[in-house]
Specification:
Helices cover about 45% and strands about 15% of the residues. It is of the alpha/beta class and about 375 residues long. It has a seven-stranded parallel beta sheet, sandwiched between helices. The chain has a four-stranded mixed beta sheet with strand order 9-8-10-11, covered by helices on one side. The longest helix has 19 residues. The relative contact order is 0.11.
């Protein structure tokens, strides 16, 4: 039986992960959960899965949760120490890293250092500290299993093939809600417009990232580290139907692709059970019903965030961390109504312009670059 610690259990990935666990109680046991502000949902998860440990962000939330689950055997912890305790639970054999944003970095690092295999849904871990993380993975002899649908598709398309035969990794993107939106209207889009993703049901932050295509930029950087390919060999194509989740082109001209109905339960289940496959309840594909699949080159002028991600890789090791921090600040500002949609990329670019990139030799230096990026972006918001 695989024993799981689920970081970010109240988010969309965490909820879908627990749906898989519920369907296969003979395969999985939950030993730890961490959540954000949705204490009511975390309470229900604690009551259903009876973990040894549950951690929340603040001690105030922990106090409220203790009262809500009084009598449960679960130890309620808080803050970064609580997250680390959950990530390193001695009984856990796999950690599902699904905390949104850079906040997931420290507990994911702790899990790797503790020798845990990681099902990685938090792309920011590799975006901000890619070379450090991959070195840790090698030193600890653990495995990283991608949960993102695109990286899971690449992972599956690489099975049975030699890495030296890879010519190119091709990540597909839906294009989000604004793929064919008139450019002149982008300055006027509302928060609800940006949250109206045509294919996927996700959390607010990642949905906005999809609308700006920063999500795809982060995935380009993540793919570089996960699959040991230079960023020049990672390309993006817009595929509005979200049926082909990504592709790998080989030197002989052959292309391997993974197809499926857009539902995160499929890549989550594969990460949890690889090399096995289990029924997930995901609807099968009817190709005749689909009729046709279409593809387009991304417009870097319409989606400057994607261009900024490629730039960040080229600028130096600290720049992706700064870019990611600025993006998180800008997205939060947009969701609060403080800035307009097009201001997101503007804030990110100005933050990057102000940064002098430098090498990163420790997680502490990554966290420092992250803090610098946040402070600079917040400063720019006031100008």
């Amino acid at each position: 039986m695989k024993k799981l610690s689920i970081l970010g259990s109240t988010g969309s990935i965490g909820v879908s992960t627990l749906e898989i666990v519920s369907a296969y109680r003979d395969r999985f046991d939950v030993v730890a959960l961490t959540g954000g502000n949705n204490l009511e949902l975390l309470k229900k998860q604690i009551e259903e899965f009876n973990p040894q440990v549950a951690a929340v962000i603040t001690e105030d939330s922990a106090g409220k949760l203790r009262k809500m689950v009084r009598g449960a055997r679960t130890e309620i912890l808080s803050g970064i120490p609580g997250m680390i305790t959950a990530a390193t639970a001695s009984d856990a054999t796999m950690v599902v890293a699904a905390i949104v944003g850079a906040a997931g970095l420290v507990p994911t690092v702790a899990a790797i250092r503790a020798g845990k295999d990681v099902a990685l849904a938090n792309k920011e871990t590799l975006v901000t500290a890619g070379h450090l993380i991959m070195n840790m993975v090698k030193e600890q002899g653990v495995r990283l299993y991608p949960v993102d649908s695109e990286h899971s598709a690449v992972f599956q398309s690489l099975q049975g093939h030699r890495s030296e035969d890879v010519k190119r990794v091709i990540l597909t993107a839906s294009g989000g809600p604004f793929f064919q939106y008139p450019s002149r209207k982008l300055a006027e889009v509302s928060i609800d417009d940006a949250l109206n993703h045509p294919n996927w049901s996700m959390g607010k932050k990642i949905t906005i990232d999809s609308a700006t295509m920063m999500n795809k930029g982060l995935e380009v950087i993540e793919a570089k580290w996960l699959f040991h390919v230079p960023v020049e060999k990672v390309s993006v194509v817009i595929h509005p139907q979200s049926i082909i989740h990504s592709l790998v082109e080989y030197v002989d001209g052959c292309v391997m692709a993974q197809l499926g109905t857009p539902d995160m339960k499929a890549p989550i289940a594969y990460a949890l059970t690889v090399p096995e496959r289990v029924p997930t309840g995901v609807r099968g594909l009817n190709l005749a019903e689909l009729g046709s699949l279409t593809f387009f080159e991304p417009d870097m002028e319409r989606f400057p965030a994607l261009k900024l991600a490629y730039r960040a890789v080229g600028d130096g090791e600290s720049m992706p961390a700064v870019m990611n921090a600025a993006n998180e600040v800008a997205v939060e500002a947009f969701l609060s109504g403080s800035i307009r949609f097009l201001d997101i990329a503007r804030i990110i670019e100005k933050t990057m312009d102000a940064h002098q990139p430098h090498a990163l030799t420790s997680i502490e230096e990554v966290l420092h670059a992250d803090r610098w990026g946040r402070m600079k972006a917040k400063e720019l918001l006031t100008q």
